[in-house]
Amino acid sequence: MSSVLFSHSYFYQMDSKQWETGTPYPPLGTIYAASFLRENGYKVSLFDVGLKESTQEIKGLLETKKPDYFVLYDDGFNYLTKMCLTNMREAAFEMIKLAKKQGCKVIVSSSDSTDHFTKYLEKGADIVILGEGEITLLEVLKTIDNNENLDTVKGVCFTKGEKIINKGRREVLKDLDFLPQAAWDLIDVESYKNAWKSKLHPFALNIATTRGCPYKCNWCAKPIYGNRYNTRSPKRVVEEIEFLSRTYNVNNFWMCDDIFGLKPNWVQEFDNELKHAGLEISYKIQSRADLLLKENNIDSLVSSGLKEVWIGAESGSQGILDAMDKGTTIKQIEDSTKLLQQKGVRVAFFIQYGYLGEKKEDIDKTISLIKRLKPDDIGISVSYPLPGTKFYDIVKDELEGKQNWTDSDELALLFKGTFNQKFYKKLHRFTHKTFQVTKGKVAIKSFFKNPFGVSKSQMKQIVKMPIYYLLSKKEKLDLHKMENLH
Question: Residues 63-69: what's their mean pLDDT?
Fold first, then answer.
């Protein structure tokens, strides 16, 4: 049977913000595909670029393994891959070039190649898989190995003569339990542990329990798993958790689903399966405010080990949320945050500035929301137009030479917003300083309630708060000047 060398294009070291954060995750989507091929008789290996410095490091493996196929298969569960960062695109192009030089047949599956298949074919890829890739990849390899015509395969693009043949997408996989467990043995888990330890973080691994998102926020691209929502069974998820816990001594997990636990009674069954297996874990999830309002659901989440929720709050302005087709309300954000924090769950907000029509009063409402609700963490970005979204269609005529960020910290406004890029960069810093002041106030309140119960991190927040306060005042003055200049 043919040999396949897998890789992906997300180099953490090429994204300085993420590398400095020090919480890299293995390429889960990649090792799912590798496991599926191996189950079907293919000889698979992996060049994991996650912790690598350079694309050139793949040369030795290409020369020693001499694979028949090089499959560049990005991790669709990693939201950073949806951003199609140019650093990673260039790395992908370079690895395609190196694999072609070695005589490999090159197949690519990623958000970026799905959106921009022509670019990848021009750079030497033989086949680009559109959307979800496991079933299509297996059919492609069997078709080529049997010297059959690729015209019969759905879900691919390839060049034929001077023409690009686009066979359209195939339906997404509905029965996720059909896939074998991801090929964790291909990952050097110890190296990931060391990366976390170097930044003094407790180690965690990533798990996916679902694929897709049924909601229709008009700025959110879903090039791989689409608008469908399909789930693994709680039993299979717990079996994987048990394997990872036993094999790698890890009990902290990032449930990297777009939306965790949406299916009715799934969380309750998950909790029961964990208890039946005698497992105690802690985990964090992404969810929506409107899904976190039922106390019995939250009780089951807490019982199963939930420690942190990242909510797509986006804005403190209802007008902006409505413009985004977000489908949530400010009251839902308020109520879910209070309920979760009452249950001892950390709540973090994704915040997005710069959406179409955003005015100064909308920004003020967002700052006010953060001060009022006191989330435990925040992540800030500016609106980012991605192909396939309604938002992209609205602003695409304003996108000239630059259509993607170089790395995730660039925060460039790629279209004409209410304010300019410098304003939003300054706003990003001001919001973080304001958030740190808010955290400091919470820590001071805790200190006066129970001086001996305050943690080291809270003491640091108390000590640093005056500095953040002064810096936030300066940032606010600068913003005011920039606003007037605008």
Answer: 96
Bridge pairing between strands 252-255 and 282-287: parallel
3-state secondary structure of 233: coil
In the chain, domain spans: 3-166
- Whole-prediction pTM: 0.94
CA angle 444, 445, 446 (to 5 degrees): 90
Question: With the CA atoms of 94, 96, 100 and 106 taken in that order, what torsion angle do they form, in degrees rounded to the nearest 10?
Answer: 180
Q: What is the pLDDT of residues 144-167, one digit of tens each?
A: 999 999 999 999 999 999 899 999
Count CB-CB contacts under 10 A for residue 367. Answer: 18
| Distance in angstroms (rounded) separating the CA atoms of residues 482 and 426 | 9
Distance CA 357, CA 319 (A): 9
d(CA 118, CA 157): 9
> How many whole angstroms separate alpha carbon 87 and alpha carbon 439?
34
Which is nearest to 258 in space by CA: 324, 212, 298?
212
The fourth-level CATH superfamily of domain 3-166 is Cobalamin-binding domain (3.40.50.280)
